[in-house]
Amino acid sequence: MKRGKWASSFGFVLAAAGSAVGLGNIWRFPYVTGQNGGALFLIAYLIAVIFLGLSVMYAELSLGRHTHKNPVGAFEKIKPRSLWKGVGFLGIVTGISILSYYAVIAGWTLFYTYISAAGKFKQGLSQTDVNGIFSSLVSSPLLTVSLLFLFMLITVYIVSRGVSSGIERWTGILMPLLFVILIFLSVYALTLPGASEGLKFYLSPDLSKLNFHLVLTAVGQAFFSLSLGMGAMITYGSYLPDKDNLFSSGLEVVIFDTLVAFLAGIVIFPTVFTFNLSPSQGPTLIFKTLPFIFSKLPLGRLFATLFFVLLSIAALTSTISLVEVAVAYLVDERNMPRTKAAFLVGLIAFILGIPSALSSSIKPFTSFIAGKDFLSIMDFTWANVSLPLGALLISTFVGFIWKAKNAAEEIRFHKSKKFPGENIWIFFIKYIIPLVLLAIFISTVL
Ligand code: TRP
Fold it and tell me: 297 to each of 15, 191, 437, how far by Cα in Å?
């Protein structure tokens, strides 16, 4: 099968940013930050983004662009007939698994779009109303599974239409618009009476809370948010033309993604403290917090609707990239037509997603292992364990098998001139990243 290419380098930045920016920034980041005590987690997350995320981003993009292959094919091309292509398969499994529960939460955002448009978040909204709306959704197996199905169908349809016509076109106007509305909401959140308490929680760290679980979660969140550790960026890099500037494209994606997450926190925490909500409630956080800000905001109904539409679209550009990894493999290596591959992957993820969709309504999924529901266990396993593991293996491969200096040449814009920080990057990808990730794993297991 013929492979696609991005129509322009800006198109690539948009698509990669579209993959990175999603529920990870707006749903997951605030909730894991809240669960891990706020500011200290934010700092750990920022350190993880700058010191681990950015380097792994370049490792994945260069591997993809150099080989012009899906993750399995990329490892196979550089180290034929070795076990390394297993890292590519791990990526495919991780992608489908993340997709399965990610699309459940994306389904929730569709429901919230509808509730917003129906004008349910109005003046004088009470806690009981907000909880009632949320439980009317999650306690209904039919509704959650149907929304999961609908979201998966939209994703698969777009992926089936191909890389540039399907993916690139969507992201251009909508991501900047999401960013603008977030800025607007942040400014408004800062005028709320609980703003200073919220900011204290979010920005003033308490070092005594430091522990390994926090560090592992911060690293997992950094990789999750940047779509790293499972080959999504290998795949997106593989559609890049050879003359593109990887260094600046990668940097732009990382900065934009991190800003969006940071702003989400600025919106959420002042609101949480203003309305006496719990910052550590977990995956329900944004769904039980944002309604309050919209209920007070002038033209709140309009803003709420716009916000949830944009969030659904941000989620869509992310699910597209989760599907794309497996589809690229099936198209490249198995010669499957794109449409068939997309529908097959979507079907598997849908079936695997059903227990997650039933996580608040049907036993045993409501309390699957150690009192945690199925969706939370999936999220922890794939985001906090599998992505850092994938990143560890990808870095080791790029550093020692492909060799960091070959990768560095791929990142260079002018082949004879080093990119800024090239030597540091080489040192990081070979030693710092594998060692740090290994150390975190060992301490978590102990
Ligand atoms: N980064 C996306 C988000 O923040 C989710 C995502 C898309 C992802 N593709 C990925 C996460 C690949 C890990 C790996 O919402």
Answer: 32, 11, 43
